[in-house]
Amino acid sequence: MHPRGPHRADLTRAQLGTDALILKEVLGRELLTRPRSKLTSHSEVPNRTRLDCLFVDHTKLWKGPRLMIKEVYAGILGLSREWKLAIGARTLCDRVSSYLLVEREAETSIKYFALQLFTVPSASYHIVRNHRLVGRILGLIQGFFLNRIEGKRVICIDSGSALTLTYPPVDPDSPPFKSKRFMPVFSDLRYLCHTLPVQRLIAADPRGYVGMFARTCAIFVGVGPNRRAVTSHVEYENDAWISVFNVTLSLGRVVKVFGEAFGGGRATTANLLTAIGIVLHHILVVCAGSGTVSGEDNDGDNGRAVEFHDAAFGCASSLPRDGGDLESRASTSRRQYTLVKFDVSSGPVSFHHSLHWLLAELLKHVDVLDPSYAATTGSLGSSLGSSLGSSTANTAPTDMTGGIGEVFGRLLAKSGSVGSSWGGTWTGGIYGRDRTESTTASGSAMTPESRKKMLVVMDFPLRVLAMIAQIRTGLWVRNGFVIRGQLLHYRDFMLRELCYDQDLFILQSSLVILDCDTVFVTILDRFGVREFFDPESLRDEVPPSSSSSSNSSSSSFASTTSVAGTPAPTPTPSAFLIHPTCEPAQLANMLNCGVVLDYPAVYRLARLPLVLDNLFGVGQQERALTCSRCMTMPVDAAICLLCGTTVCMQSDCCRDEDGERERGECNMHLRDCGGAVGVYFLVKRCQLLYIYANNGTFGAPPYLDAHGEVDVSMRRGRRQYLHYARWEEVRRTWLAHGIPTVIARRLEAVMDSGGWETL
In this structure, are strands 637-640 and 677-682 parallel, antiparallel, or unpaired? Predict the structure, then answer.
């Protein structure tokens, strides 16, 4: 046959005597030799072999030869581990650019050989250690999403060159986000890092691997921020968020693998603290700069620093204890808190904070952070010195000296400064030598500057949680379906463990690292309810209103009372207005019913009790739930809402035969009451029953519990109250002769089997 491809494919299947491998080995050695001719198209490959030339020309062939050459590669890969290493070191990174940009058909790509290579622990360890494959893949991911593309090739960014971030955030509307071919690249990285030897390598060198991965995560932090629409609805709903969530799903799985590398006894306390410090530095540089600023919000310096404000919280009018004076007691109860200044209702908030998810995964290894575990490891300073390759690194006390709070204080003191921008350069590096004065061996507690940095770290997941609460409340309804879709995907089972649970874990960890009072006040401030829960802010004049209107109203009222000669009124604490003193039943009745105006008797249905429990009271049950025909207490009682009579539903004692059909008492009662229309309240089921001309349907329960929920058949045993809006809807439907229409629409929507005449 003339084409060479089939001959070579036949050689991989041929046998020389009884040996089926010798021809494959000969063919493999031939592919690893240098080519005889020099082509200009292969000049970009240094020290190229015939195999490298075939890889370069693979995308230029048509489908038939590509499939045949894949069979040749598959036969050579199955020879031994050495052949896997020889081919695997050349395959992935050189072909990822072609796969992302040029490949027409994914099934003919040779990139998928990576799955056979990366799942072999020895092969993955050799490739990662000797060929820097993890860093090359991360560099390709950064170059692809930052749109560093020249011709048909992705420019690989050197992830280990510097710790500062000099490139702008990614654009979710760019072509790389619209392509779905990045998913296998993330999967290959996950398979590569999931093997046990590679995980040990990551845990032993957090400076190299966690630092490179943190820089990759940094370009996705704060992508696609959302801003609440207040005055008008969003006219154009962009669907770029779908592509961003696809990237988030793939990146979140890799984050979990990198975090799991420090568990299982593979990492020392010093290495784990080094990794945590690296991630904290990147969070502060990105989030405190322009990581969450959208295109229309960018300032001239391409960044915006985090602002702080002081807020007082607590009760200053407490009684003294143990003979102390009132002033000392007030000073200890009401405090000034330094909080991050941000309003979720007006500022940009993004769902995507991959660096925080990586930090949460690292913090989950609490066994490594235990002081007894840390006693057998080196000091924090020695670990940092070995990681940095510096002999003059700072010396510090034992890693966990002073507890987790002081350890984080030392780590945050060495991290990036709050307010750094993308283009800024932090002179001290991640653990700079010029900041030794802040990390002396004295082991002091967390400084105010470190406390501010930790507030910045926890504030971004807290913003997401506050935005979720506002979306579910309906405050973001003007943003359209886009914000609703993002919320559903963020809390979906595929992303819940990777994103939502991680944000909650960061918030829980901050309660251990920081003062609990500061964290709780920060939560109240971010949710916008700090003034509501502040005891001092509740003591204001009535009625409560805005500051401007309150001042003008109080001044005009004071001038009027002074002219009239009346004494000034005593300010009433608005806490009495917020918490009314009434029984739960009365409170639920007021919330559900409001002010009810009575109607003439001809327009009213039979009165039901405001609380359903009153039907089963002593003496009331026998009087109200007794059948008027058989004079017994029905098993399934139904109260006619037209006249108030109690009848038996589906009972053998009150059933008549009408020709060939048996008719229940609910249908027979229509002859004496409502004619062809009947409306009943089923006590046991806590539902309404509509009947018309041998047809019927069940209506919505008129009773709800204090939380506004339905308790069908009273299974939960909660006290239920008559809901005025539902009760009024039943009355209006009956007055408008709408019962037959309701029954007809229900029968059209469901498969009805009949039998309503037996009720």
Answer: antiparallel
Residue among 596, 275, 573 nearest 431 (CA)? 275
| Residue 398 to residue 379: CA distance in whole angstroms | 5
DSSP classification of residue 226 = B
- Angstrom distance (rounded) from CA 489 to CA 500: 10
CB-side exposure of 369: number of CA atoms within 13 Å? Answer: 20
What H or E segment, with its residue span, contains residue 656?
A: strand 655-658
Comparing C-alpha atoms, which of 13, 61, 14, 53 is closest to residue 30? 53
Phi and psi at 657, nearest 5°, equal -95, 120
Q: What is the residue type of 706?
A: A
SS3 for 487-550 is HHHHCCHHHHHHHHHHHHHHHHHHHHHCCHHHHHHHHHHHCCCHHHHCCHHHCCCCCCCCHHHH
The whole-chain average pLDDT of the chain stands at: 73
- pLDDT of residue 649 exceeding 50, the answer is yes
- 112 contacts: CB under 8 Å, gap ≥ 6: 106, 184
Long-range own/partner contacts, residues 496-501 (CB < 8 A, 24 or more apart)? 498/248, 498/249, 498/252, 498/253, 498/255, 498/256, 498/357, 499/248, 499/252, 499/351, 499/357
Give yes or no for residue 143 having a pLDDT over 80: yes
The tokens of 525 are what?
């401030």
pLDDT band at 389 (very low <50, low <70, confident <90, very high): very low
Task: Check residue 42 and give its pLDDT.
Answer: 57
Residue 162 has pLDDT above 60, yes or no: no
Q: Tell me: pLDDT of 642 over 60.
A: yes
What does the pLDDT read at residue 756? 80
Q: Helical H runs in 43-110?
A: 50-57, 63-77, 81-101
Two structure tokens written together for 403: 């507890």
Strands 695-699 and 703-705: unpaired
pLDDT, tens digit, 9 for 90 and up, residues 439-484 = 433 344 678 888 999 999 999 999 999 999 999 988 898 888 889 8
Q: Enumerate the H helices of 527-676 as residue ranges.
A: 530-533, 547-564, 575-578, 584-593, 620-624, 665-668
Report pLDDT for 654: 66
For residues 380 and 399, the answer to whether their CB atoms sit within 8 Å is yes
pLDDT in tens, 20-33: 677 777 777 777 77
Q: Which of 341, 196, 325 is nearest to 264 (CA)?
A: 196
Which residues in 199-349 belong to E strands, given as ranges? 308-313, 335-340
Using the predicted structure, report yes or no on whether residue 142 has a pLDDT greater than 90: no
φ, ψ of residue 97 in degrees (nearest 5): -60, -45
User: Cα(387)–Cα(278) distance, rounded to whole angstroms?
Assistant: 11
Peptide bond into 461 cis (omega under 30): no
Read off the pLDDT of residues 618-638 as tens digits, 9 standing for 90 and up.
555 555 577 767 777 777 788
Nearest to 158 by CA among 79, 94, 211: 211
Tokens of 192: 């590569």
Cβ-based neighbour number of residue 599 at 10 Å: 12
CA distance 532 to 536: 10
Antiparallel, parallel or unpaired: β 149-150 and 153-154: antiparallel
With b for 16 or more beta-carbon neighbours within 10 A and e for fewer, the 673-687 pattern comes to bbeebbbbbbbebbb
Q: Which DSSP category does 16 fall into?
A: B
Contact 263, 365 (CB under 8 A): yes
Which residues, at least 6 apart from 567, have a Cβ–Cβ distance to it below 8 Å?
Answer: 561
**Whole-angstrom distance, CA of residue 638 vs CA of residue 649:** 6
User: CA 639 to CA 681: how far, in whole Å?
Assistant: 5
Cβ–Cβ < 8 Å for 74, 24? no
Contact 162, 92 (CB under 8 A): no
What per-residue confidence (pLDDT) applies to 388? 32
Q: For 327-381, what is each residue's pLDDT tens digit?
A: 444 444 788 999 999 999 989 999 999 999 999 999 998 788 776 664 344 333 3
Q: Which two tokens stand for residue 125?
A: 């360890």
